[in-house]
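Data availability (excerpt). The following record was deposited with the supplementary files.
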Amino acid sequence: MIRYTHRISLVRFFLSILIMTKDDVARVHAEMDQQMSASSAADRKLCEEYLRKAHLSVAYHLITSPFMFALVIPLIAMALGKLGAKLARKIVRWQSPRFETLDGVFYREGMTLIA
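Predicted structure:
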């Protein structure tokens, strides 16, 4: 995994999910299990822990890739914008009299500036 980590990208990650069938994945896992079967249980457990940490590192790498910032951050911003707009509509409906008071205050302030 370390040898080829530089080749991991978000596009490659998603393509591998789309292209590899369940049989392909099962075959790869069977090969890995066969290679690990010669190791002791303690060694396998140790390797599994390191693989878990490696997977976390790869996930972090994918999440912080420039592609994620270029694609996902705008999507998140759009979603938050829509959520914010919904929340703003609810607040205006809930606090309508207070906003009407603000309208009056701003109107008077504007009239004072004009005069």
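Summary of structural features: Helices lie at 10-19, 22-36, 41-63, 66-94, 96-114.
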